[in-house]
DNA sequence: TCTGGGGTCCTACCTCTT
DNA sequence: TCTGAAGAGGTAGGACCC
């Protein structure tokens, strides 16, 4: 069996940032709120003529997938992440609606404001889902079930949306409980769920062990296939596997985590206000691109979007990653880390183009992405383009004796070559100060008039690659 | 017929530094 | 001066989640 978490007294119920605190003495009361078909419900709220009909959000383009489906559409077998072509075939009468993420963010903010009135210990998982640690609010608000019922009523009253709520001593169990509370859809029709499911501490293990193993967090298709080869079908069967066997199958970290979770022995805290660790933008093109000029422009467009988000968040990044998915769905990434943090679209785009330059585009590019990580607060100080230490740099340095004073190099798929003199951008404080003011002006225009209001001159008239 | 977008975390491997 | 070990930092890919 597993060792249970150690016990301490009078420990705050919430964890801010990444700091993890010991498990509390008494069982916690975790509430998981999960909106029912959130994107669809928002669309129906804004357009009541959609009510009761099979509605699919997303999947508008030829290469799109379903972002959300109404329960009426799910009765036809339509599921989220399904290719739109499949969804259309399964349910030809479905109404397809383009996703409006800005609108969903608005409604989500109202939802989270309601949740925040119950307890400050709210961990937003996504736009439509959150965990609340209500352990400290039980006496004040009259028990977890009462809190769950009041939340459902309030959300329905204020937002006109329905949600399912699970209550349990742990996040994982609360999540499974809210799942059990949801409506279901089958070819026989739509069946309303109980709305609220409460799992008491003494029945938690039995509840957990009855679930299929793929219901466990951390088990996706690859791990599921491995477990199924060992005949593991339920969380109960997973729990009976020796921890060492599990570690041997899926690795030390995941193996230990799954073993603890399967015995309801992992006390994962409700984390409030998690700081972002990366920001990215990516786009699947309607047609595959092979033109370096077109893809260079796309890098600039994506970098511009990422830079805007960085500056709005008051962040800068040291690492830039370019993601490329080829026509055959093979996906590669190329990244480069700079000594100084960056938040300028032109700098990000230059690094991105440099990385793209090392890739053979002949197979055709289906998707292009630009992402940043190693984020720091406070914006950037100064930047120059030879500041990167990409793979080409290091490998070239290693082959040439390790000098850091070499010219700018880049990897070209095994054929590294010395580039021309490094290109320098003006530093902040000279021309860079003007650039910072220009960036601030751009950010303000976008805040007031939307992202499409202004952009790099080279993208004028082609804000995005043509969609079929 | 195909297979999005935005994230996090983990692992393996490589290089550099001490 | 050379060598090996260990740790840090970086890169790339995979798995997973919503």
Shape: globular
- How large is the share of residues in beta strands? 15-25%
Euclidean distance between termini CA atoms: 57 Å
What radius of gyration results from the CA coordinates? 25 Å
- Give me the count of strands: 18
Number of helices, counting only DSSP H or I runs of 4 residues or more = 16
Class by helix and strand content?
alpha+beta
Strands ordered across the widest β-sheet: 6-7-2-8-11
Low-confidence stretches at least 5 residues in length (pLDDT < 50)? 1-24, 382-430
Short description:
This protein is α+β, with helices and mostly antiparallel strands. The chain is 36% helix and 21% strand.
Describe this structure in words.
The chain has 16 helices and 18 strands. The protein has 468 residues and is of the alpha+beta class. The strands form 6 sheets. A 5-stranded mixed sheet has the order 6-7-2-8-11. Helix 13 (292-312) packs antiparallel against helix 14 (345-356). The protein binds a DNA duplex (18 and 18 nucleotides) through residues 58-59, 61, 63-67, 80-86, 88-89, 101, 125-129, 217-223, 251, 253-254, 276-284, 319, 321, 329, 331-337, 367, 369, 371, 389-391, 394-395, 397-398, 402.
Key attributes of the depicted protein:
DNA-binding; alpha+beta; single chain; four-stranded antiparallel β-sheet; 36% helix; disordered N terminus; 468 residues; five-stranded mixed β-sheet; 16 helices
List the helices and strands and how they pair.
Elements: E1 15-16, E2 30-35, H1 38-46, E3 55-58, E4 66-69, H2 71-74, H3 84-90, E5 95-97, H4 101-118, E6 122-126, E7 129-133, H5 138-141, H6 144-159, E8 163-168, H7 171-180, E9 184-186, E10 189-191, E11 196-198, H8 204-209, H9 221-229, H10 235-240, H11 243-250, H12 252-262, E12 271-272, E13 278-289, H13 292-312, E14 315-326, E15 331-342, H14 345-356, E16 365-377, H15 391-399, E17 409-410, E18 417-418, H16 431-449
Helix pairs in contact: 4-6, 11-12, 13-14
The structure holds a DNA duplex (18 and 18 nucleotides).
């Amino acid at each position: 069996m597993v060792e249970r978490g150690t016990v301490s007294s009078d420990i705050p119920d919430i964890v801010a940032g990444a700091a993890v605190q010991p498990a509390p003495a008494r069982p916690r009361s975790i509430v998981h709120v999960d909106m029912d078909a959130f994107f669809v419900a928002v669309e129906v709220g804004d357009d009541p003529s959609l009510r009761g009909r099979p509605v699919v959000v997303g999947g508008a383009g030829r290469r799109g997938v379903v972002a959300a489906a109404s329960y009426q559409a799910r009765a036809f077998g339509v599921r989220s992440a399904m290719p739109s072509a499949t969804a259309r075939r399964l349910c030809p009468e479905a109404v397809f609606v383009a996703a409006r993420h800005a609108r969903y963010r608005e409604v989500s903010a109202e939802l989270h404001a309601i949740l925040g009135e119950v307890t400050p210990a709210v961990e937003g998982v996504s736009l439509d889902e959150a965990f609340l640690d209500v352990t400290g609010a039980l006496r004040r608000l009259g028990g977890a079930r009462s809190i769950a019922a009041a939340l459902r009523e309030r959300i329905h009253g204020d937002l006109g949306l329905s949600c399912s709520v699970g209550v349990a001593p742990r996040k994982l169990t609360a999540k499974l409980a809210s799942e059990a509370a949801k409506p279901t859809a089958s070819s026989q029709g739509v069946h309303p769920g109980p709305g609220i499911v409460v799992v008491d501490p003494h029945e938690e293990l039995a509840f957990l062990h009855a679930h299929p193993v793929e219901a466990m967090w951390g088990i996706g298709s690859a791990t599921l296939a491995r477990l199924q080869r060992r005949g593991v079908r339920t969380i109960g069967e997973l729990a009976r596997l020796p921890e060492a066997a599990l570690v041997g199958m899926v690795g030390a970290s995941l193996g230990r985590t799954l073993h603890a979770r399967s015995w309801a022995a992992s006390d994962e805290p409700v984390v409030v206000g998690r700081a972002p660790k990366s920001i990215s933008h990516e786009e699947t093109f309607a047609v595959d691109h092979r033109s370096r000029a077109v893809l260079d422009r796309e890098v600039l467009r994506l970098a511009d979007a990422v830079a805007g988000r960085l500056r709005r968040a008051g962040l800068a990044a040291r690492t830039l990653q370019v993601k490329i998915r080829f026509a055959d769905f093979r996906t590669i990434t190329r990244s480069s880390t700079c000594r100084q943090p960056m938040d300028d679209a032109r700098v990000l785009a230059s690094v991105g183009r440099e990385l793209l330059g090392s890739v053979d585009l002949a197979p055709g590019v289906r998707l292009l992405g630009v992402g940043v990580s190693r984020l720091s607060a406070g914006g950037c100080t100064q930047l120059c383009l030879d500041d990167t230490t990409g793979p080409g740099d290091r490998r070239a340095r290693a082959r040439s004796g390790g000098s850091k004073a070499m010219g700018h190099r880049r990897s070209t798929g095994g054929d590294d070559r010395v580039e021309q003199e490094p290109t320098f951008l003006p530093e902040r404080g000279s021309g860079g100060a003007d650039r910072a003011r220009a960036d601030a002006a751009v950010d303000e225009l976008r805040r007031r008039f939307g992202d499409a209001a202004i952009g790099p001159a080279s993208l004028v008239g082609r804000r995005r690659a043509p969609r079929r």
